[in-house]
Amino acid sequence: MTKPPLFFIHGMWSTPKIWDWMRERYEARGYRVAAPTLPFHDADPQDAPDPLLASTSVQDYADALLAQVRELDRKPVIVGHSMGGMLAQQIAAAHGAAGLVLLSPAPTAQTSSLALSPLRTLLGVTTTANWWRSPTRIDEERARWGIFNNVPETETRDALGELVWDSGRVLFQISMPFADSSKGTQVDYDLLTMPATVVVGNEDRITPVGTARATARKLKGAVDYRELDGIGHWLFHPPVRETVADEIDRLLQRVEGRI
Question: What SUPFAM superfamilies does its record include (predicted)?
Fold first, then answer.
């Protein structure tokens, strides 16, 4: 049976390191795995951010991903976490995909809604002067509350040390799509007819279940939807990552049965 390549997209303030366990798992099973680094996300977290990051847009991220996904020899299954889930939808619409896995997906222009927990999570960023045209990084207190809630302390400490700078402009485009004249997070859902899986923790505080449910309703193909009880935004620690991998496996079985 033919195996599609896997194309993993990390989220905001993150790096491809989040996919290390998944990469090893699927490469051992014979899958080709690509986990690209978004522009400027390969810098040392202790270094000052690149000034160009301040003006980097969602389109810049999408263009970089499109250039890399086009290097694959066939349409991949695209897996994205958080902001990577939003970008995964854009890449699938622009390039096509054999399947789509959206983990704790950030909102698109069409699935955005007002919720208090994301506002609280982002408060330390969005109360900084000119944050929308500056590099941003979430502080430890709010990351613990809104991203790493319900994650064991050892894994939380490790992940906190790996958070990198990101684009204030991109955060603005995601969090305030109504004010973004470029409509940077818009997705053509009529093109998303491939099999899809949406997974979210029911205690996610930065991309809450309402966003995931709205996303699942927008997708035009057959969708498996899963809410994980007692789980927050972070899905990369045991045993949660194994549960997520089981959902990816089920999607792969559906896709491979169609090839």
Answer: alpha/beta-Hydrolases
